[in-house]
Specification:
This protein is α+β, with helices and mostly antiparallel strands. The protein has 2 domains: 4-74, Arc Repressor Mutant, subunit A, CATH 1.10.10.10; 83-245, Beta-Lactamase (2-Layer Sandwich). 49% of the residues lie in helices and 20% in strands.
Amino acid sequence: MIDEKKNTVRAAERALDILLCFTNQNELGLMQISKETGLNKSTVFRLLATLEGKGFVKRDIRSDKYQLGIRIWELAGQIYQSSDPAMLFLPEMEQLRDTLDETVSLYIQDKSERIRVQAVESTQAIRRVAPIGVRMPVLVGASGKVFLAFMQASERKRLFADSEMTVAEQQEYENQLQEIRQNGFALSVEERETGTAAISVPVFHRDGHLLAALAVSGPVSRMSTDQMYTFIPTLKDAAEHCKQIAR
């Protein structure tokens, strides 16, 4: 006997995999989606037809490619109107950018990665370009260190175990994370990108759990270690204001 419930769950997973293909691309053809999901073309075609019927994707008849549909934006609008930090903290981030005139980013953690969910770029000609939606490993960069410093020790140990760090390197990293917990900020200089430096602080919810990491980044020519230290009081104040408005 066919397990209808199992087949329904599998179909839902496949449909979600198709939607996730649009994370980094605006338009995709049938062959591209089939390749990225590992599903055969006929299955992809049927699922796309269902998603199109529900308004989650739309097909451009001229290019025969698919884009996200209006229903996605309707759902996203509900997030923005509720408790999404990306929208709640945006005014504070804009004020922080205006004060420091460097790019401000907001990250949340998703398992072993951090995602930039909001960014306000510097107005300077040479600036840190920060695209929203980018995923980066938590093991690298100032904001990654913030997440590592305040996560459960067991989770951190698992991430270390999955990395290529030696035991000695892990211990050295642990010592650095202890300082971050004590001081309430993390620095990085050209750790992830050549020519870029960043400083990040934790944003806690009023109930005490870590909600996000708030970071300021820019070219190393302007953001020396000494300069970043002068940002700390302003950055911490901004994180505290975000805490007060977090839902």
